[in-house]
Please model this.
Amino acid sequence: MRTFLIIYVFIVVATVSILGFRGSTSKKPPLEIFPDMDRQARYKPQAENQFFADGRNDRPIPINSVARGNYHNQIEVFAEDFSDSYLGDTTYNIGKSSDGEFVQKIPIKASNELMQLGHLKYDIFCTTCHGAAGDGNGVVKQYGVLAATYHDDRLRDAEDGYLYDVISNGKGLMYGLKDRMSPKERWAVVLYMRALQTSQNAQASDLSAAQRLDLGF
Amino acid sequence: MANIFPRWVNTLPIKIIIGIILVKTAIVLGVTYYFTPKFTRVGYAPTQPVAFSHALHSGQLEIDCRYCHTFVDRSEHSNVPGSNVCMSCHSMVRKDDPQLALIRDSYESGDPVPWVRIHKTPDYVYFNHSVHVNRGISCVECHGRIDQMEVVEHAMPLSMGFCLECHRNPEEYIRPVEEVYNLDWERPETEEYKEVATGFVHDWKINPPQSCSGCHR
Model:
C-alpha cells in the first residue's frame, strides 16, 4: 500500500508539474485531444493554400473583372465616363468628371445619416493622425507623423472631389484608404470634413437671427 | 486446519477498493481539469513574426479596432490587415527599425506577413463576426482585454459551452452598440441597466440560436 501511495502521489505531482495549470501562457499550439473534424480541407479567408503558386487562398482580382458587390476597381475595367444604374458612375467612384476635373460638390445627397457615417469613419481612420478636430494634432504627432490641418484656405477652397481623391489614393506621406472604405463612406468622410471646417471657421452672420439669439450673441 | 490464506490478505479487499477509488478520482479530476479548452486553448500566446503590441497601438494610442480589422462589421471574418495598413504610419514612424523589416519587405514584394493565427473555431462551426459586433457583443467578450496585451493570448475558452452561455443569456453580455469597440467599458451592475440590456435584446430582435443547426450548418 505504501509503495502504491508513493507511486500515486508521484504520478499526480508529475502530471500537474508537466501540464501546469489552466490559463498559464504557452507558445505551443493548443492540443486538440479529440480532433474530430475540427480542421477540414476547405477554403478559409486569408489562409494558406499550397495549391496556388503564391501559397494563399485569397486570390487577387483578375484584370478586367469587377469583384462582385465590391467594385472598387471599376475604373480599371470601364471607361472614365461609364455610368450604370447598378454599378454607379465613375464620377462617384473617383471624384473626377469625364474630362478629368475634380467634381465641385459631393455627388450624393447629403443627409444626417451620411454625416453620422462620415463621423464614424472619420473617427476610425482619420483621427489618429489628423486629430478629432481635423487640426493635424492626432495622437501620433508625438511620434513624428506629419498630418495636414483642414483649417487653412488651401483645403477650405479645395473641391470635394479633391478631398475624395486624397482619401482614396493618398497624397505625399499619406496612404490611400480606398481598400478600406467604400465610395459612399469616402464621400461621407468628405462631408464630415466640411462640417469640421465649418466648426472652426463659422461667422455669427452665418446663423439665423433666432439661432444667434439662442446662443446669446 | 491451517489457514489457506496468510493474514495480510484480510486487508487486501479494502486496499484494492481504496486504490481503485483513488485512481478513478485522479482520472476523473484530471480529465475534467485538463481535457477542456479552458486548459488546452486559454493562454496560447505564440511568438509572432513581428512583435506587434496591441497594448501600445490599441491601448495607449487608442487606435480603433476597425482601423486594421476593417471588415469585422461587414464580414464573417475579422481580417488581419495588409502591410499597407502598417506602412500608413510606419513609413514615417520608426521607418528604419529592424523589427519592422518584415513589414517593409512585405509591402515591397506583396508577400503576406506570416502571422500566426491564435483564435480558431473548429471548421464545422459557422461563426460570423459582423452579426455579433453589430448587435452589441463586444470584441472583449470573446477575445479578452486585447488592448492590454503586449503579446496576444487566447483569453477565453471559446468552447461550445462558452458560446451557449451567452446564447442562452444574451442580456448579460450585450452592451450599447457604440461601446462595442471600447474594451474598457464597464457594464453597470444596476437594475436599471439590466432593464436596458433586456430592452436591447427585445428591440434589436436578438434571438441567438440554441439549436444545433444555428452554428453547425
